[in-house]
Amino acid sequence: MKSFSKEEIKALDKIVRLNLINSVSGYKSANLIGTKGEKGENLALFSSVVHLGASPALLGFIMRPASVPRNTLTNMKLTKKFTINSVSEEIIEKSHFTSANFDEGVSEFEVCKLTPEYMENFEAPFLKESKLKMAMNLEQIIPIELNDTMLIVGSIETIYVEDQALETSGQIDLNLLNTVAISGLNRYHQVKQIANFPYARVSDLPKFN
Fold first, then answer.
1. Domain spans of the chain?
2. Residue 88 has what DSSP assignment?
3. What is the average pLDDT value for the chain, to the nearest integer?
4. What is the pLDDT of residues 51-100, one digit of tens each?
5. Pairing mode, if any, of strands 132-144 and 126-127?
6. pTM of the predicted model as reported, rounded to 2 decimal places
7. What is the dotted CATH code of the domain comprising 28-191?
8. How many CA atoms lie within 13 A of 164 on its CB side?
9. Residue 196 CA to chain centroid, in angstroms?
């Protein structure tokens, strides 16, 4: 088995180091975050959206350092609103290229031929092509001093999901939505369910070999 010490990781070529460290956390969700500000609409790909709690319903994601203009961050600070839109297999290429470094004021919706959609008077644009999307309220920006990134915390105002993917238990069948996952910086994967276990209780522990 190959090993990398902290010192060896630091000494790696920059691109190799980025690829390695972005891969070790495994598969990540692929989501497009939609915002709107004074200079128009913005759509950006994030692979760091995580569940933070169910009551209240909170999601978070990591924003890179604001040492360069971050239109998503600027717009969220202004309006306190954003949307999270799941990426499906049908739109992975268009979604991927929203991460290009476009000039300020350029709409990724327009350049990448994706469709903004406004629902129930919510201020931020949704992605019409997305099959699972959420209206989010900005609640907190938590600085991470170690690397100047930020944890963006939002509360879910509304969830929109295609009917056939919503189970009576409340779970969402991501397979039916053709949801994709990301590994590293630029590899996309199909989602495939391989097991469905009951809630883990000590009393129900199987006899493992």
1. 28-191
2. B
3. 94
4. 999 999 999 999 988 766 688 999 999 999 999 999 999 999 999 999 99
5. unpaired
6. 0.93
7. 2.30.110.10
8. 5
9. 24
